[in-house]
Amino acid sequence: MITLGGRIKQLRTEAHLTGEEFGELFGVAKSTVSLYENNKSTPDDEIKIKMCKYFNISLDYLMGLSNNRYNKKEPQKGIKIPILGSVVAGIPVEAITDIIGYEEITPQMAKNGNYFALKVRGESMLPELKNGDIVIIREQPDVESGEIAIVLVNGDEATVKQVKKLDYGIMLYGFNSAVYAPHYYDSKDIEELPVTIIGKVVESRRCW
Questions:
Q1: What range(s) does the HTH cro/C1-type domain occupy (predicted)?
Q2: Entry pTM
Q3: Using alpha carbons only, what angle is made at residue 126 by residues 124 and 129, rounded to the nearest 5 degrees?
């Protein structure tokens, strides 16, 4: 049976939350979240109740005493998010804003921000992202160095790339360097083109 710490980590990762973000939700430090997840500390009853309400789960499920996740008998329905056209995994192309379909995310995930989906075209992000994959994006104006983001170049061109932050700019990488050479943008480029991060890729989905 899963431990309380294991369940907390499961809930956090399912919601795509960092330790810091999870801690902010429940008024504890990032280090405290780590202690919870490693079963070195136990949240008090008030925090447990907050977790149950936030994730809409039973206390027994949180404690690892039951596999019955929800307080309600029926599981929660997913939240639909739009697929807003396609993203080229290669040379940037103009972003398509018409809705071409829908994907679903969990209600817990939806609480953490605004999400949309885009379809990948091209081979520059192989093998992690293939042509036709759907990427789930959380809208945010910045990402950590090394994370995969949706970036607008020249204001109207969207591309999915790994972002590496440097002292005087950023580098956009494709995992398949044979198709896409790294592109460097200095501070002037970022401001004048402009180069704008519009979201972080938190999940990819593949149809077989």
A1: 8-62
A2: 0.66
A3: 100
